[in-house]
Design a protein that fits this description.
With about 100 residues, this protein is α+β, with helices and mostly antiparallel strands. Strands 2-3-1-4 form a four-stranded antiparallel beta sheet.
Length: about 100
């Protein structure tokens, strides 16, 4: 079974309140054994548009990645994120 990843690009417009999202998302990430491979850091946009924050989260498989996103724990966190940042999030199965 292939691992799966959340690939997230984020522009935070309220950094103080975005911290509430990070705290609220933690229980979902712990429940689904999420592994943050990339969380922010230095970047260079080589092609296309970029956002200020780039995140890659690894899950044991696609179903687990989907379950985490659709969980009640993450649903609450997502509402906080959406109020304080703009983002794109895709879930992709690994090679």
């Amino acid at each position: 079974m292939s691992k799966a990843y959340w690939i997230v690009r984020v522009s935070v417009h309220n950094a103080e309140n975005y911290q509430d999202y990070i705290a609220a998302a933690k229980p979902a990430f712990e429940r689904y054994s999420a592994n943050h491979i990339v969380r922010g850091g230095r970047y260079e946009a080589m092609e296309g548009d970029a956002r200020e924050r780039n995140v890659v989260v690894e899950f044991k498989d696609f179903d687990t990645a989907m379950a985490c996103y659709n969980s009640p724990e993450y649903e609450a966190a997502r509402a906080i994120r959406m109020a304080n940042a703009d983002a794109e999030l895709v879930i992709v199965e690994g090679a």
